[in-house]
Every structure is written in C-alpha cells, then in structure tokens.
Amino acid sequence: MFFILSKILSFLISPTIILLGMLIISLLSKVPSIRKRFLMIAIGLLLLFSNPFIINQLLNVWELKAETTSPKSYDAVIILGGFMSADKTNNSYSFGEGADRLTEGLILYKRGFVKKIILSGGSGSLVDDTRESVLAKAFLVDNCGVPDSVVLIDTASRNTYENAVESKKIMKTANLKTAVMITSAWHMRRALGCFETVGMNVDIHPTDRLYNKPPHTLDDFIIPNTNNIIKWEILMHEIAGIIMYKIRGYN
Predict the structure, then answer these.
(1) Which residue range(s) make up the domain with 43?
(2) Is the entire prediction scored with pTM above 0.85?
C-alpha cells in the first residue's frame, strides 16, 4: 500500500499534472472570471517551471556533492538501480540518463578502489517485474570483463529504503566493512538518509548532476526551455519521496 501511495503522491505533485489540471479547469469552467484566473495561473506556472535560472539554483542547493575528490579504497561500491532496463524488442540492454551510476562504479573497480560491486535494484514498477540488478550484472560480466564473483546483487528491493536494507544484508553476509554508495546527485539526499536510518555509514559518490555550473547567460534568465520542466519533475518526485519516507520513518 505504501508503495502505491508514494507513486500516487508523486503523480499528484507532478508539474505537468498541475499544469494540465489548471488548463482543464480553465477550459471546462463556465464562469469567465474563473476561466481567466486559472489560465493565467497555468501560464505563470509554465513560465516558472520552464525558467532555467530558477530550477538551476534550486538544484545547486538540493543535490549533494562528493565528500572528497580524492578516491579512497573500499571493500565495496553500492550502486543503486534506476539506470537501465531490458530492450525486449532487440534482446539487448537499454540505458537511461542515470547510466553514470554504473559506469562510475565500474571505473572505481577497474582502478582498484573497490573489491566488490553491489548492485541494488529489484523492480520499482507496478507492472514490470524485471530485476534490474540481474541485467546490470549480466552486462558487467559479459561485456566489461568483471568476474562473476565480484558482483553481488540485490533483487528484492523496490525502493530506496529497501536498497539500503538489502545492501546492509549483503555487506554483512559477505563480511564487507566499508562502502561507497553511488546514485544520481538529485537522488543522493534521500538515499543517504535511508542508509543512515538502517545504520550504514557509507561515503557518497554522486553522479549525473542536473545542476549546470555558471557562468549564466542571458538565456538562463529570460528564455523558457521545456527541458527544465523535466528537472522540476525529478525534483518534485524526490520531494514526494522524502515526505513519504519521513512519514514511514525511512528517512
């Protein structure tokens, strides 16, 4: 039930859904003043959500940064899922924008900074039960020269909190003491909170930041860009996740 409720909350606070809601009310209302008011609200929100400068400043505050720029050695790297799926049409792999999670973990292993790779990610979908960690392990072993024994997988977790729970179990079973955790920078705040809640002390290695470094151009201040609506979607999804996790004591 909690899993479904978190999905519903994320849907309801989606900027796209909010904009559509305002427009639908504007179109369906028979009262001219209400129609005009909601249309103006929709236009105002569209300008807000598509403005590059505003979302960029918010992301700079929201996204966590690496604790150190000098690599350390760890028993394991924990890579949280959400970066790939199965391309069933071509019988291959399909990587998303979060693929840096996997490549950064692979780089740490190849450079000798970690001994084991823990892939944490079952199925976070309501309709697809494909286990992402199984796919990711197959990719690393079959295509990247990583020994099968190096890659440990969690196939049970469906959300970030369960990532932390299952990763802790794997660490204990394999007698691993130290770890660095990898996920997207915009997701790291919620992820780190979950790992701390279950009593895991991990260093963090954020990847694929959404924040764009200055200097800013005039375009950043005045020209709307629909790509920024996607960034708002991601940010609001994370806020919804943290709210639900706070309620459940996960964060």
Answers:
(1) 2-63+223-248
(2) yes
